[in-house]
Amino acid sequence: MIINEQNDEWVAVRATDYSKAECDGRRTYTIKGREFSECSFCGTICPARDLFKEPDSGLPLKCDMCESDPPLEVPMCVQACQHEALTYEEKEVWVEAEEQVKPAEMELSLKSLIDKYGLEKLANTVARMAQKG
Questions:
Q1: CA pair distance 132, 75, nearest whole angstrom
Q2: Is 106 helix (H, G, I), strand (E, B) or coil?
Q3: How far apart, in whole angstroms, are the C-alpha atoms of residue 117 and residue 56?
Q4: Residue 29 burial (10 A CB sphere; 0-12, 13-18, 19+)
Q5: Which of 74, 106, 113, 132 is most buried when burial is the number of CB atoms within 10 A of its CB?
Q6: Closest by alpha carbon to 59, among 72, 49, 69?
Q7: What pLDDT, on the 0 to 100 scale, is given for residue 72?
Q8: What are the residues facing 3 on neighbouring strands?
Q9: Are 97 and 109 in contact (CB under 8 A)?
Q10: How many Cα atoms are found within 13 Å in the side-chain-facing hemisphere of 35?
Q11: Beta carbons of 77 and 86 less than 8 angstroms apart
Q12: What is the pTM of this model?
């Protein structure tokens, strides 16, 4: 994190000219008694940073992308950015689905365990595991 206390700027190091920064959510940081969310880092370095603060209290505004009901297509910070420095891109994350074990495969696995260790040893192991919770 780069800190410029004179201008009250708190900037995430990963948000540089050479790397894309992404708003990844809801983590908050307390710096010298003031609370900042990662969403507010963009606003702290923006020339129009007053748009990112509550007019009465001067506190950083929460990101309205997720907070809005219904959710906005583009956050207000991107819409209001006078220098087109902020953009909004959707990112797809692929998550592999867990494979469902078929009963026939499970029977083969149990059979192989019984063949390898014997029924009594397998039953004792399952009983111990059941007691542990």
A1: 49
A2: helix
A3: 72
A4: middle
A5: 113
A6: 49
A7: 74
A8: 10
A9: no
A10: 5
A11: yes
A12: 0.34
- pLDDT tens sequence across 95-130: 787 777 777 776 667 888 888 889 999 899 889 988
B/e letters for 97-127, b = 16+ CB within 10 Å, e = fewer, are: eeeeeeeeeeeeeeeeeeeeeeeeeeeeeee
Alpha-carbon span 123 to 11, nearest angstrom: 58
What is the DSSP annotation of 13-61?
A: TT-STTS--------EEEETTEEEEGGGHHHHH-TTGGGGB-TTT-PBP
Q: Which residue has the tokens 């014997």?
A: 118
Query: Residue type at 57?
Result: S
Average of per-residue pLDDT across 26-46: 62
Q: Are 37 and 52 in contact (CB under 8 A)?
A: no
In the chain, where the domains are located: 2-80, 103-132
